[in-house]
Amino acid sequence: MVVENLQTYSSDHEKKRHLSAIKMLCEKFCKHEDYIRPIYEEIFIEMNRRARIKDYLSILVYRTVYDLAKKNWRLSNHK
Question: Residue 50 sits in which domain range?
Protein backbone atom coordinates (compact mmCIF):
# COMPACT_ATOMS: atom_id res chain seq x y z
CA MET A 1 0.00 0.00 0.00
CA VAL A 2 1.34 3.45 -0.89
CA VAL A 3 0.64 6.47 1.32
CA GLU A 4 0.20 8.70 -1.74
CA ASN A 5 -2.78 6.65 -2.83
CA LEU A 6 -4.49 6.43 0.53
CA GLN A 7 -7.65 8.48 0.70
CA THR A 8 -7.08 9.32 4.33
CA TYR A 9 -5.57 12.72 3.66
CA SER A 10 -7.86 15.58 4.44
CA SER A 11 -6.00 17.92 2.06
CA ASP A 12 -3.15 18.22 -0.39
CA HIS A 13 -1.24 20.08 2.31
CA GLU A 14 -1.46 17.09 4.64
CA LYS A 15 -0.34 14.77 1.85
CA LYS A 16 2.70 16.97 1.17
CA ARG A 17 3.64 16.93 4.87
CA HIS A 18 3.72 13.12 4.94
CA LEU A 19 5.68 12.83 1.71
CA SER A 20 8.12 15.44 3.00
CA ALA A 21 8.55 13.46 6.23
CA ILE A 22 9.39 10.32 4.24
CA LYS A 23 11.93 12.24 2.18
CA MET A 24 13.59 13.69 5.30
CA LEU A 25 13.87 10.23 6.87
CA CYS A 26 15.44 8.85 3.69
CA GLU A 27 18.01 11.64 3.69
CA LYS A 28 18.70 11.37 7.41
CA PHE A 29 19.43 7.65 7.33
CA CYS A 30 20.85 7.46 3.79
CA LYS A 31 18.22 4.90 2.92
CA HIS A 32 16.24 4.49 -0.27
CA GLU A 33 12.55 5.31 -0.15
CA ASP A 34 11.74 1.64 -0.73
CA TYR A 35 13.18 0.94 2.73
CA ILE A 36 11.63 3.83 4.69
CA ARG A 37 8.24 4.17 2.99
CA PRO A 38 6.70 0.79 4.02
CA ILE A 39 7.67 1.37 7.65
CA TYR A 40 6.26 4.90 7.57
CA GLU A 41 3.05 3.69 5.91
CA GLU A 42 2.44 0.95 8.43
CA ILE A 43 2.88 3.31 11.37
CA PHE A 44 0.86 6.04 9.64
CA ILE A 45 -2.09 3.75 9.00
CA GLU A 46 -2.20 2.58 12.62
CA MET A 47 -1.80 6.05 14.13
CA ASN A 48 -4.28 7.57 11.69
CA ARG A 49 -6.95 5.08 12.78
CA ARG A 50 -6.58 6.06 16.42
CA ALA A 51 -5.91 9.79 16.04
CA ARG A 52 -8.62 12.19 17.08
CA ILE A 53 -6.60 15.29 16.23
CA LYS A 54 -4.54 14.80 13.10
CA ASP A 55 -2.76 18.17 12.92
CA TYR A 56 0.52 16.74 14.21
CA LEU A 57 0.20 13.19 12.89
CA SER A 58 3.05 13.60 10.40
CA ILE A 59 5.34 14.68 13.24
CA LEU A 60 4.34 11.74 15.44
CA VAL A 61 4.79 9.24 12.64
CA TYR A 62 8.12 10.82 11.64
CA ARG A 63 9.38 10.62 15.21
CA THR A 64 8.29 7.01 15.63
CA VAL A 65 9.97 5.94 12.39
CA TYR A 66 13.05 8.02 13.27
CA ASP A 67 13.38 6.30 16.66
CA LEU A 68 12.96 2.84 15.11
CA ALA A 69 15.47 3.54 12.35
CA LYS A 70 17.98 5.01 14.80
CA LYS A 71 17.67 1.99 17.09
CA ASN A 72 18.02 -0.45 14.17
CA TRP A 73 20.98 1.48 12.76
CA ARG A 74 22.77 1.25 16.11
CA LEU A 75 22.06 -2.48 16.39
CA SER A 76 23.28 -3.20 12.86
CA ASN A 77 26.52 -1.27 13.46
CA HIS A 78 27.38 -3.39 16.53
CA LYS A 79 27.27 -6.74 14.76
Answer: 21-77
